[in-house]
Amino acid sequence: MCLIALAWRPGHAHPLLVAANRDEFYARPSQPLTEWPDLPGVFAGRDLQAGGTWLGIGPGGRFAALTNIRDPAQGQGQGLRSRGELPVAFLGGSLNAEDFLQQLREQRRHYSGFNLLLGDHRQLWHFNSRTGRANALAEGLHGLSNADLDTPWPKLQRAKNALRQCLDAPQPQALLALLGDPTQAADEHLPQTGIGLTGERLLSSVFIASTTYGTRASSALIVHADGSRQLIERSFGPGGRYLGEVVVEA
Fold first, then answer.
1. Would you tell me which of 36, 41, 44, 52 could form a disulfide with 59, CB atoms 3.0–4.6 Å apart?
2. Which domains, from first to last, does the chain contain?
3. What's the whole-model pTM score?
4. Residue 23, class by beta-carbon neighbours within 10 Å (0-12 exposed, 13-18 middle, 19+ buried)?
């Protein structure tokens, strides 16, 4: 998952709104959003190469989402374990978010750099593996891409501004629409993450499309005050070709 824009509003009729894009190589095998037969009540897409997920919901109102961290100072080496197993472990487990992240702090060295969002309709936590800090999110609009929470990359600012327009009467289709923005940032506003100018340009849009790499899944999640949730995922192939849509009510 490479972009997440969210509105966290405890006590509101819709305490959590999430609009998220997963960007990945098209050749990496993946399964669209579905209930996992080995984890009843867990709904998520599945990375068929490593077995994990990038975003999902689980029993008891659980929510989890993941982005990697792109940092030239740290290099791009691979951790011994897949980051995608972390959302799965939380969604299918019994620990609350705070206790889960407390345990993860000692184990984070086994994974390449990542951000992790965990919670439910009552609490929401963020964890950055580079710093080892776990923080309960303050109420408001937040965003994650491949840096720390709310790092003002142009694509993330565009997504958060678009999400702000959806707050009064949130609809899944509006959240999905904002995730389809192909606008690339001007060169002078591009971050420097060690992938060269061509790469920075390609990855600077909310929705990414090329022949080999791009937005594979767009997810819209609306959580209601009673804990019920609506999750919609759209899948895409090379060049941004639309492949289908899955709707989950839980």
1. 41
2. 3-249 (3.60.60.10)
3. 0.94
4. buried
